[in-house]
Amino acid sequence: MKCIKCGGELTSEMFPCGMCFSCGCSISESEEAFKIEQAQIKAEADLAIQQHKQKLAQKSLEEQRIYSERFKNHMLTTGFSFEGFRITEYLGIVTGETVMGTGYLSDVGASISDFFGTEASEYSEKLRAAKQAVLKIMVKNSTDLGGNAIIGISYELMTFSGNMMGVSVTGTSVRVNKYSDKTIDSHVT
Description:
Mean pLDDT: 82
Oligomer: single chain
Radius of gyration: 32 Å
Shape: elongated
Structural class: alpha+beta
CATH superfamily of the domain at 74-188: Hypothetical protein apc22750. Chain B
């Protein structure tokens, strides 16, 4: 810590006396100045952290918007082609996986459904949610490769001990282009 008056370094010997040996200034004034300086440094650091968090949040929102747009426009099929489109590039196999617990209440509901021979709606809803989650993961992986479509989509369901179920989806990420009218005519004639 420095003296507020002369700028000299305050040593441990000066504190019991309560004054700067160089200029005679009261150390309490320097201590108050030090506290104010520390508070300003902390405020600047807090502001920098807040600005960094805001930048990260904006970046995250932008990435979510981009992936949402890509997901909306991504073509998907269990087949191996799209009517009116030509595959221009095969980018590789893409997957999405998740494992989720069924939960005690879902198990009770499923037991009742099993007993009466009805649909286990609790499991059905969890399965639907899991399939959507893995599909989003797979599309994200496809867009990361530069794809705009996925062909040959196949789901696999797994059960694990402890009432856990897994869902996996696999497909081939491709890039497709719409046939132009001239291209279609040349294929027909």
